[in-house]
Amino acid sequence: MQPHVSQHINYYLSMLFLQVAGFFIVMAASSNIPLQMELVTLNSGIYVLWASLHQYMHHDLHPKVVLEYILVGFLGVSITFFMLRMQM
Amino acid sequence: MPKLLKFLRHLFIPHESNNHRAKVLHHKSLFILILFFIVGGLILTPIKHNYQNVLGISADISVNDLLNLTNLQREKNGLQPLVLNPELTNAAQAKAQNMFQEDYWAHFAPDGTSPWTFIKNAGYDYVYAGENLARGYTTAPDVVNAWMASPGHKANILSPNYKDIGFAVMAGNLTGEDTVLVVQEFGSENSQDEVASVGSAPAVTNIPPANISPTKAYTVSQKTLQTSPEVAAAASKPLINSNSFSKEIAVLVIIILLVALILDILIMQRRKIFRLVAHNVDHVIFLVMILLIILFIIGRGIIL
User: Fold this and answer.
1) Which of A86, A78, A30, A77 is nearest to B245 (CA)?
2) Residue B182: which of B193, B167, B194, B162 has the closest Cα?
3) A33 touches chain B (CB under 8 A)
4) pLDDT bucket at B233, cuts 50 / 70 / 90
5) What is the pLDDT of residues A7-17, one digit of tens each?
6) β-pairing, B55-56 with B83-84?
7) Which ipTM did the prediction report?
8) Of the candidates A33, A47, A81, which has its C-beta nearest B37's C-beta?
């Protein structure tokens, strides 16, 4: 295991838990496209907030880093938007 | 080094040329990808609706295949094969059309109409009856396998009480999603000696779950297709299957990003170069979650 990962294992496990929970919540909403979109957006928002909070507590919360989390979060939302639009 | 290899290295491997961060992971690249998916979703949707012969949903589900696969399961369990019944076929088609018209995904219509009403109205005087539904599947084996994996649906398929069967395979937009709907109606008629002996047994015994799968409709008969223009339009196989097309693009992009992130983790761990970037492991966890949603949730088949 990488030293960096082992140092923040609790944080990564919590992030993993949040994302797995998000997956199952989205699964529970299958066949409801608008709700699926809202849940993925909510999950992406939680991802950005949780990651930014970790950066704030353990590293320097630099705007460039926050922007990267926001962009990756938005990318997840936009991919889901693309997929769901093609189902409608 | 050939230019192509240099370009690929620039895109995917941390190097001096990309400031020790794969170019596909730069903010600008992520922003371009976001725009690509949003604009793609907005542009392709009207194309899908207006040019369904070019971009649309498609499924390869025939009544013959459904019947053969259902009877194959019965034969494996020592049961008599079911006979395709015209009244039950009409009941299944009426049920499918009603589901599209009233826009519901349930055994009972919003006004309370039961599956048995469609069977009765089709002229089938049942003693036992049952219904399986499916949507979002693209092949008949997928549909039957999904039913067999569900105890309630399996009980219908393997019930010795049923003698007849009817199917409808119809495409349309159900609860906001373009899909192919499969309705399977089971029954035994009152006039059949062995069932008539049941006498006072309750008429309706089973309500199996329904199945769902996305795509366009391939109906059991031309008559059904003609009665619903939406379904008729869906019956022509599109040049590009919108579901698989969109899934392949999304999965490809996510896998490219995951590969770049993992390479970044492995390479930069050795180089010990300080960079002001987010945790790659965070991105990997998040993108894997999105990948799983795309692969296993969006557009998957459902049974009821």
Assistant:
1) A86
2) B167
3) yes
4) very low
5) 788 999 999 99
6) unpaired
7) 0.94
8) A81
| Residue B288 neighbours by CB under 8 Å, 6+ apart | A19, B258
Spatial contact of B248 and A83, defined as CB atoms under 8 Å apart: no
Give the ranges where chain B is alpha helix by DSSP (H).
3-12, 27-50, 63-76, 86-102, 115-121, 140-148, 151-157, 193-196, 222-227, 229-234, 242-271, 280-296
Mention every residue, 6+ apart, whose C-beta is less than 8 A from residue B82: B67, B70, B71, B74, B162, B163, B164, B165, B186
Residue numbers in B near A85 (CB within 8 A): 41-42, 44-45
Q: Give this prediction's pTM.
A: 0.75
Residue the block writes with tokens 């999304």: B250
Q: Running DSSP on this structure, what letter comes out for residue B16?
A: G
Radius of gyration (Cα) for chain A, nearest Å?
A: 15
**Residue for token pair 């094969």:** B81
Residues of chain B contacting A88 with CB distance shorter than 8 Å: 45, 173, 176-178
Give the pLDDT confidence of A15-68 residue by residue, as tens digits.
999 999 999 999 888 767 888 899 999 999 999 999 999 988 887 788 999 999
Q: Which long-range contacts (CB under 8 A, 24 or more apart) does A57-63 make?
A: A58/A8, A58/A11, A62/B276
DSSP B196: H
Structure tokens at A46: 């939680």
Nearest Cα to Cα of residue B233 among B169, B167, B172, B168: B172
